[in-house]
Amino acid sequence: MKADRTMHAGSDTVRYERNHTNHMNRSSTGGNTAVLSAACLDNGLQILLKESHLAPVASFWIFYRVGSRNEMPGATGISHWVEHMLFKGTDRYPQGAFDKAVARAGGSFNGMTWQDWTTYFETFPAERIELALDVESDRMANAIFAPDETESERTVIISEREGSENSYRWLLNTEMQAVAFQMHPYRHPVIGWKHDLLTMGRDDLYGHYRTFYTPNNAVAVAVGDFDSEQMTARIEQYFGGLASGPAVPEMRLQEPEQQAERRIVLRGTDQTAYFGLAFHAPAAHHPDFFPLTVLDSILSGAKGMGLFGGSSSNRSNRLYRALVDKELAVGVGSSYIPTIDPYLFSFYATLAQDITHQQVEDAIWAEIERAQTEPVATAELEKAIKQTKAQFAYSSESVTNQAYWLGFSEMIADSGWFDAWLVNLAAVTVADVQRVAQTYFTRNRQTVGWYLPEDSG
After folding, report:
1. Whose CA is closest to 226, among 139, 136, 127?
2. CB–CB of 410/63 below 8 Å?
3. Which CATH number belongs to the domain containing residue 185 in this structure?
4. Which of 84, 288, 345, 457 could bond 281 through an S-S bridge, CB–CB 3.0 to 4.6 Å?
C-alpha cells in the first residue's frame, strides 16, 4: 500500500501560521533572535519551526503521538517494534540506503519510542536538510514491513528485553510500575511484556503503523539555519500530498486514585540490594508540576528534562546527605518526569553493605516528612531553581536538542508549556514546595519495592 506522494508547490494547503518571539531561547543562545513559527497542513500535520542562524546546521524531527500509553494487553511493546520496522526501508530507500546517504551528507539520525510518543530525527548541514524531509515523508507512508524482517526484528527486541532482565534494578522498577498502576497503560514497559512480543505478528504491526504513523497524528519540527517560509513550503511539498490517516483511537483509561499502600519484594542472584518508593504525581500540564520539579531538585539535585538533559552531581542535596554521607546507601536519588497523564514521583536507592531496607525506607521517609513539616530555606529554593535552569539551558543548547524540546513539549503538553517553562519554574515559592510534599506523599498512596539477594533471608 502506497500513499499518493504528489508534490504541491506553494502554501495553499496550510491552514494557519503564527509567529512570536521566543524570548527564552534568545536569552539562552547568546542573543540569537530566534522566531518560533507554527502551521498545520490540511492533512493534519502540525509544523513547528525555529530559525537559528548561529551555525549552518539544521535538525528535523517527526514526532508521532503514540507510545506505550496507546497499547493494550496483548499488544504491549508494539510501538517500539514498529519504530524499529520503520528503519527497515521502503522501495525508494531500501534498508541501508538512507544510512549511506546520511553518512555522505555528513549528518546523524536516530529514532526512539517512549510512553507518550515515538520520534525520528536527522541533523545535517543546513543545505542538506531536505534529505530528512524526503526520507521521513517516504517512511510515513511507504514502510514495507517484510515478513522476514518482522521475524528478524522480533528476535532483536526479545534479546533487548532479556538483556534488561539481567538487571534486578530494572526488574524491580518494572514490577513497581506494574503494581503502581492498575488500569492505565503506563503500567506496561515500553519494550512490552515478553508474551506479547512472542505472539504479535506482521499484520498487528502493520495495522498499528497505518493507524498511528500518519500526518494527522504527527508533528514536524525543524530548528536551524533556514528561512521559515521556505521550510514550511518544503515540508508541504514532501508531506502535503500524504493521506491524512484514520481517526486515531482515543486513550480514555484513567487511573483510579490509590487508596492503600502497595508493596512488592523481589528476590534474585544479584548480591546488591535495591530499594524503590513511588507516589502518583500530576501530569506536565498540571500547575503542581513545577513545584514538584523544584522539590525533586532539592531532594536529589537538578535534572535536565527529557532526552538530552544531564543532572547535577553536587553532593549537597538532601537525600545524598541523609543516606550516602551516613553510609546507609551507596547511591540514592529521586525522579519526576513530564508526561501526558499523571505518572510517578519516584525514589530509589542502592543499599550499603549490612544495611536493611527498613533503615533506608525510614531515612527517605524522614526527608519526606522534613519537606512536609519544615518550609525549605529561601536560599535552598533559589539554588534548586538556579541549578534546574542551568540543566534546562544545557539540554537546549544545540539545534538538535532545541528541536527535541519543541516536539517533546508539544507531545506532553503544548509549545506554550515550553515557552513558559523558565517563567513557571521561577514562580515556585517556599509554600508551593511544602504544599506539594504534603499533598502527594502520603503513606496510603505509596508503592514500595524491595529487592533482596536470595541468601539474605
Report:
1. 127
2. yes
3. 3.30.830.10
4. 345
Query: DSSP secondary structure string, 200-262?
Result: --HHHHHHHHHHHSSGGGEEEEEEESS-HHHHHHHHHHHHTTS---PPPPP----PPPP-S-E
Q: Is the dihedral of CA 148, 111, 170, 201 positive or negative?
A: negative
Task: For residue 256, tell me if it sits in a domain.
Answer: no
Please name the residues in contact with 28: beta carbons below 8 A apart, sequence gap of 6 or more: 392, 393, 396, 397
Q: Are 270 and 234 found together in one domain?
A: no
Residue carrying C-alpha cell 546507601: 329
Q: Which three cell numbers stand for residue 350?
A: 542502592
pTM of the model: 0.91
Distance of CA 94 to the CA centre of its chain: 29
Please give the chain's pLDDT, 457 residues, in tens.
333 222 222 223 333 233 333 333 333 333 344 568 999 999 999 999 999 999 999 999 999 999 999 999 999 999 999 999 999 999 999 999 999 999 999 999 999 999 999 999 999 999 999 999 999 999 999 999 999 999 999 999 999 999 999 999 999 999 999 999 999 999 999 999 999 999 999 999 999 999 999 999 999 999 999 999 999 999 999 999 999 999 999 999 999 999 999 999 999 999 999 999 999 999 999 999 999 999 999 999 998 765 555 555 568 899 999 999 999 999 999 999 999 999 999 999 999 999 999 999 999 999 999 999 999 999 999 999 999 999 888 888 899 999 999 999 999 999 889 889 999 999 999 999 999 999 999 999 999 999 999 975 5
Domain count for the chain: 2
Q: Is 415 exposed, middle or buried (0-12, 13-18, 19+ CB in 10 A)?
A: buried
**Cα(456)–Cα(398) distance, rounded to whole angstroms?**
48
- Contact, 133 vs 60, CB < 8 A? yes
In terms of domains, do 235 and 276 share one? no
- Coil/strand/helix, residue 401: helix
C-alpha cell at 456: 539474605
Residues in the chain: 457
**Count of beta carbons in the 10 Å neighbourhood of residue 225:** 17
Euclidean distance between CA atoms 419 and 427, whole angstroms:
14
195 by DSSP, 3-state: which? helix
